[in-house]
Amino acid sequence: MSNVTIKDIAAAAGVSHPTVSKVLNNASGVSEETRERIKRIAKQMDYVPNYAARNLANKRNRSLGLIWPDVEGLFYYHLCDTLHKEAAKRRIDVFVSMSGATHALRNFNEHFIDYVVCWFSPMWMPEDDFIREKEHFKGQITIIGGGRTEGANLILIDRSEGIFSAMQYLSTMGHKKIAFVGIDPEKIKGYMKGVLHNGLHFTPEYMITAPNDFYYGTEGKNGLAERFTALWRGRDRPTALILDSQGSAFAMINVLSSLGIRIPDELSIVSYDDIPEFSVYPVRLDTVSPSIHELIKLVLDDYEVFCQHGERRGETLKIIVPELIVRESVRKLDVKE
Amino acid sequence: MSNVTIKDIAAAAGVSHPTVSKVLNNASGVSEETRERIKRIAKQMDYVPNYAARNLANKRNRSLGLIWPDVEGLFYYHLCDTLHKEAAKRRIDVFVSMSGATHALRNFNEHFIDYVVCWFSPMWMPEDDFIREKEHFKGQITIIGGGRTEGANLILIDRSEGIFSAMQYLSTMGHKKIAFVGIDPEKIKGYMKGVLHNGLHFTPEYMITAPNDFYYGTEGKNGLAERFTALWRGRDRPTALILDSQGSAFAMINVLSSLGIRIPDELSIVSYDDIPEFSVYPVRLDTVSPSIHELIKLVLDDYEVFCQHGERRGETLKIIVPELIVRESVRKLDVKE
DNA sequence: TTGAAAGCGCTACCAT
DNA sequence: ATGGTAGCGCTTTCAA
């Protein structure tokens, strides 16, 4: 059966329902003895709190909503998965919505979720409806990834610096001819900085800026294959490759395998965004990536802060620098090479 | 600003709040004139209903929860994505939980989600806690995939028949030596039925029953590679391959590419579970798969039925037979081959 | 057609 | 330490 209320418990325990409420909320003002008794009875009766009532009476309920970004990819999947697991440890409920930012926020709003996390790129501009929805939302919003809107807390990612550190690493390993596959302007910036800073060889062909859809789109994919093949067959064959995302990584690995290129013997690779798949499939890829655990810890810690202080702050929680993870897709070049 | 209540609207319209309530719920008993006026004012004041209050007073809220299955894989991702999009068209809110069935159900319960969809294999047994949670849940539960529990509606999938139809197709295309990679007993049954029914060649080596973790687990993956390589180098080289899941497909495509096997020239392939990735990566795979759109439509239609009738029914909504999708990974064999 | 009143389950405030 | 009471915003019933 359901529908056990605090009044039922109160009756069973021979106390009043406010007393039960206090016990269930760990509030002070109840003797240790009755406290224990009430707790026992509540458990016995399999009491489940009614969030609607609790909410009507203005209480938080330790819940967090995640707005799934409008990007395909395993990185978010793992982010999401980790968030669920870590949040569970802290007894925070989490819900995911893939309905688009505005719609998702509205849903969360209606269902009493009190903290919302989303992932937006720096290019993101909130639509008017989103702003309107945000006015109604009484909880906290935290944006990861560079997007911003008034009142939201921010977790920024220095992608440029991340790619730059990958370039430094490759340079340290003796690579002078490094190509880049991707489209993110920040990452391109990090790549160029690496080229300049280390005085590396560079030709325009080294920057393969494939269109955004080359992960699934066949045309883009072919364009990628053709461009890379031309580069590989040309005089300026690179010894290393930076892949700016999981999408480019999957696409390129196919291209490389169809060309029969061995990694890292013939070509070294560093990819952006670390996902478990990269550590087994098909070579153990070196990556540079924001740490999912760090990201999640930041969010969850901020959730607690929010629960303590309650009001919106609109501050930058941290600027995360993607970390290099060395595995076995980069080879050290001999001096003479 | 927030916090516009029906009382505010009532005041502004010079009526009582129950009248406003009726209008907002499209209930009868209000003159057309005041109805229009109230609607206008509500919109003007940017009224947002308070679900907590509405819920306390026992009302549904057109929301649906999806329990993410305890399986990695893109198929569920696309299922989930499609569900969001289709549900949005019908103005149903959807939330996803990846916290495990019991925990997820509890969360949905607390947040007044009134219909829950989950995906469980026939082997699934509800834990006691799940049953307990189910008692509390006043909405409808629908299980896809073969799992069952009292009161839940069921959408079954005849995987065996699906694989069998793949076998029929391959047989029609002239294949007599067909191997199988996977572990699902139902699918193995479909495979064996196909072998027997068509009098195909068979040796135990044709059934590569790799352990469940061979998608990500390195050991399993190697085992798979070794077993398949042995088969390929042996006297009984198959001309076609059935892959029983996305996991085996990804793993095998790697193995095949490292062996330099061309598809479909040297080997034809049919895989189970259709996902967009299969249509481009790296060859356009033929698949046999339950239709995501059919699945979603069944669920959403049943949601409406539930909203009409309200009580739990515990019936089987449909037995879905996976459909064959022909692309270009199967070659027609000459008679002499 | 309309509105007054009760009540959903809970928390907060203020007496006791 | 305890409990009576009010009230959160809404729907529902019933009387006017």
Keywords:
DNA-binding, six-stranded mixed beta sheet, 3 domains, six-stranded parallel beta sheet, Rossmann fold, homodimer, alpha/beta, 337 residues, 12 strands, 43% helix
Brief overview, please?
The first copy, chain A, has 337 residues and is α/β, with parallel strands linked by helices. Chain A folds into three domains: 6-44, no CATH class; 51-158 and 292-321, Response regulator (Rossmann fold), CATH 3.40.50.2300; 159-290, Rossmann fold.
| Global structural class of chain A | alpha/beta
Query: Which two chains touch over the largest interface?
Result: A-B, 50 and 50 residues
Which strand order spans the largest sheet of chain A, edge to edge or round the barrel? 2-1-3-4-5-11
Specify Rg of chain A, calculated over alpha carbons.
26 Å
Indicate the CATH topology of the largest domain in chain A: Rossmann fold
What does this 3D model show about the protein?
- The first copy, chain A, has helices at residues 6-13, 17-24, 32-44, 51-56, 74-89, 101-110, 128-136, 159-172, 185-198, 218-233, 246-259, 292-309; strands at residues 63-67, 93-97, 115-119, 140-144, 153-157, 178-181, 207-208, 240-243, 268-272, 286-289, 316-320, 323-325.
- Chain A has 337 residues and is an alpha/beta fold.
- Chain A folds into 3 domains: 6-44, no CATH class; 51-158 and 292-321, Rossmann fold (3-Layer(aba) Sandwich); 159-290, Rossmann fold (3-Layer(aba) Sandwich), CATH 3.40.50.
- Chain A has a 6-stranded parallel beta sheet.
- The longest helix of chain A has 18 residues, at 292-309.
- Chains A and B meet through helix 4, helix 5, strand 2, helix 6 and helix 7 of A and helix 4, helix 5, strand 2, helix 6 and helix 7 of B.
- Chain A binds a DNA duplex (16 and 16 nucleotides) through helix 1, helix 2 and helix 4.
